[in-house]
Design a protein that fits this description.
- Helices cover about 35% and strands about 20% of the residues.
- It is an alpha+beta fold.
- It folds into four domains: about 190 residues, Heat Shock Protein 90 (2-Layer Sandwich), CATH 3.30.565; about 120 residues, Ribosomal Protein S5, domain 2; about 50 residues, no CATH class; about 210 residues, MutL, C-terminal domain, dimerisation subdomain (formyl-coa transferase, domain 3).
- The strands form six sheets. Strands 5-4-3-6-2-1-7-8 form an eight-stranded mixed sheet. Strands 9, 10, 11, 12, 13 and 14 form a six-stranded mixed sheet that branches. A four-stranded antiparallel sheet has the order 19-20-21-25.
Length: about 600
């Protein structure tokens, strides 16, 4: 039997490695931006076409490369950052493994232009599928320009798995935003299909945050800064009113490298306990400086995860600093001082108190006498006090006996009147609301429990699908139009789903850069925040591929969740009856759009087993 183990050809090995490093156009953007930052650039320009699928180009004014380095950088594991294994624990630069450029060259057409300040001419290199097609000297400006074209041109299966342009653009903007936040001393700009999306000048950290996010300003951002023997922390956290029901505006940077760490995220979010709901996520942008020897950043191909040598102490420090920032700026709830207009003034002399009490008693007696005269006649007052009380007691007993009986359900504090059964009231009493969350209905076989929120979500979901596919919903016009501000990534996604949004009843139009005007909303949304609904519609759509059916279902489901009546809302008898009728008119009344049961049946046999 012949040997079966053999070495892979270089081009195959490069394509396999590219699958770990280059997953989508955003991966290319991240690696190229990291290299431009490491090159000590002060200006970086990112140019995109078709959300990076056709072109990703990064131009910087950094130190540039020599002709030899320009050729050598495309080889696997060629790097200037480390020379021995010990150097891995001293890394302070963004890139260091030397895999990114080789991976790009194996799955795309690449063009490199670079020049050092001391060189008279620059270098041009063209590569296709890891094969160098051209290398020559050219006239160029100081710095480096790398253009990655036709990504995955030789791996069509990988290209087919890319998502729609708005979704891919959103991922690119996330990488661009992280690089810009970590390096406010560098000017960044982003162009997509010849349109400028970002133009960020050199600034301090606070100004850079405000430049990127339109809803952030100096008044709603709280600074947090502390130096310890373990780490140095700086950055800003948003006030509770900036919290949103979607993730994406939480940033941790360790030595200017963006990381994802659920443990440290909990340290920050726990500081907001009692200030925001569990479904909300606060804004924060926190920078940690630590000795590189105390962390390991080589545990993930994208270098977005790392290990701390002393993770528990880092957690405690982050939590203490964020709590201190919230407390120093009086964001935490506090007890207001007593005010004479709101609280009783207890500094009263004893004599004054006696006079006040006697005066109040005399007023009460006069009131009681008037009520007795009115209810029992003038001769009722002529009787003695004991007789008065006896008569009042007899009246109360007679009135109590004439009232319908009351009974109290276990676990329910409110009492329900049970009058004599009559034909029209018997039906009304067969339906009632339990704890303002469930509808209880008597049926022939037993009892039916309906989750009012899940049921309403199912009703609205099917209505929305019908509006998207056949008959657009009617819009309820607002008295005053409302401006909605979005960032560049969310704007592109909203433009993608704008026809569906309008079909659901939103009267919305573009109004300048990253701004939309909302003139009308669906009738079901008259009780919620329209801007928040739009943001969550965008967030839920980000993970879809953009297929027509998936797009419709995603938008319809998201809007139904926002507009549905929530647990805790009191419903009238007519509303409960209407909800039940509309639920059983649905194609699938049993489950909500998320798969949650809408109703449960409890037979008489099940009830008997309880006793």
């Amino acid at each position: 039997m012949s040997d079966i183990i053999k070495l892979l050809p270089d081009h195959v090995a490069n394509q396999i490695a590219a699958g770990e490093v280059i997953q989508r156009p955003a991966s290319v953007v991240k690696e190229l931006l990291d290299n431009a930052i490491d090159a000590q650039s002060t200006e970086i320009k990112l140019i995109l076409r078709d959300a990076g699928k056709a072109l990703v180009q990064v131009i910087d004014n950094g130190m540039g490369m020599s002709p030899t380095d320009a050729r050598m950088c495309w080889e696997r594991h060629a790097t200037s950052k480390i020379s021995s294994s010990e150097d891995i624990f001293k890394i302070k630069t963004m890139g260091f493994r030397g895999e990114a450029l080789a991976s790009m060259a194996s799955v795309a057409h690449v063009e490199l232009k670079t020049k050092r300040e001391e060189d008279s001419l620059g270098t041009l290199i063209l590569i296709e599928g890891s094969e160098v097609k051209k290398q020559e000297n050219i006239a160029a400006s100081v710095g480096t320009s790398i253009a990655v074209k036709n990504l995955f041109f030789n791996v069509p299966a990988r290209r087919n798995f890319l998502k729609s342009n708005p979704v891919e653009l959103r991922h690119i903007i996330d990488e661009f935003t992280r690089a810009a936040l970590a390096n406010p001393q560098i000017a960044f700009s982003l162009w997509h299909n010849d349109d400028e999306s970002f133009n960020l000048k050199k600034a301090n950290q606070l100004q850079r945050i405000c430049d990127i996010y339109a809803d952030k300003n100096k008044d709603n951002l709280l600074p947090c800064e502390e130096e310890t023997s373990i780490i140095n922390v700086s950055g800003f956290i948003g006030k509770p009113e900036l919290a949103k029901k979607m993730r994406g505006e939480q940033f941790f940077f360790v030595n200017k490298r963006f990381i994802k760490d659920a443990y440290l995220n909990h340290a920050v979010t726990s500081s907001f306990e009692g200030m925001i709901s569990k479904e909300q996520y606060p804004f924060y942008c926190i920078f940690i400086e630590i000795n590189p020897a105390q962390i390991d950043i080589n545990i993930h191909p994208t270098k977005t995860e790392l290990k701390f040598e002393d993770e528990k102490n880092v957690y405690q420090i982050i939590r203490a600093i964020t709590r201190k920032a919230l407390g120093d700026f009086h964001v935490a709830p506090k007890i207001n001082e007593f005010d004479d207009n709101q609280f009783m003034n207890f500094q009263i002399k004893q004599s004054d108190y006696g006079n006040m009490a006697s005066q109040q008693n005399s007023q009460k007696d006069a009131t009681i006498r008037e009520e007795r005269n009115y209810s029992r006649g003038s001769d009722f007052v002529k009787k003695d006090n004991n007789q008065d009380w006896k008569q009042i007691y007899e009246i109360a007993r007679s009135e109590k006996s004439s009232r319908p009986q009351l009974f109290e359900l276990p676990g329910i504090t409110s009492k329900i009147e049970m009058p004599e059964p009559e034909p029209e009231t018997a039906v009304a009493q067969s339906i009632f609301q339990l704890h303002h969350a469930y509808i209880v209905s008597q049926v022939k076989s037993g009892l039916m429990l309906i989750d009012q929120q899940a049921a309403h979500e199912r009703i609205l979901y099917e209505k929305n699908l019908y509006a998207l596919q056949k008959n657009p919903a009617v819009s309820q016009q607002k008295l005053f139009p409302k401006a909605v501000h979005l960032n560049a990534g969310d704007e592109s996604i909203l433009l993608e789903i704008l026809p569906e949004i309008r079909a659901l009843g939103f009267d919305i139009n573009e109004f300048g850069k990253n701004t939309f005007v909302l003139n009308g909303v669906p009738a079901e949304l008259n009780h919620v925040n329209e801007e928040q609904v739009l943001q969550e519609l965008i967030e839920n759509y980000k993970n879809t591929r953009g297929a027509q059916n998936n797009k419709h279902e995603s938008v319809a489901r998201s809007l139904a969740k926002q507009a549905a009546v929530k647990a805790g809302n009191r419903l009238s008898l007519e509303e409960m009856n209407q909800l039940i009728d509309e639920l059983f008119a649905c194609k699938e009344p049993t489950y909500s759009p998320d798969g949650k049961p809408c109703l449960k049946m409890l037979s008489l046999e099940d009830v008997k087993k309880l006793f």
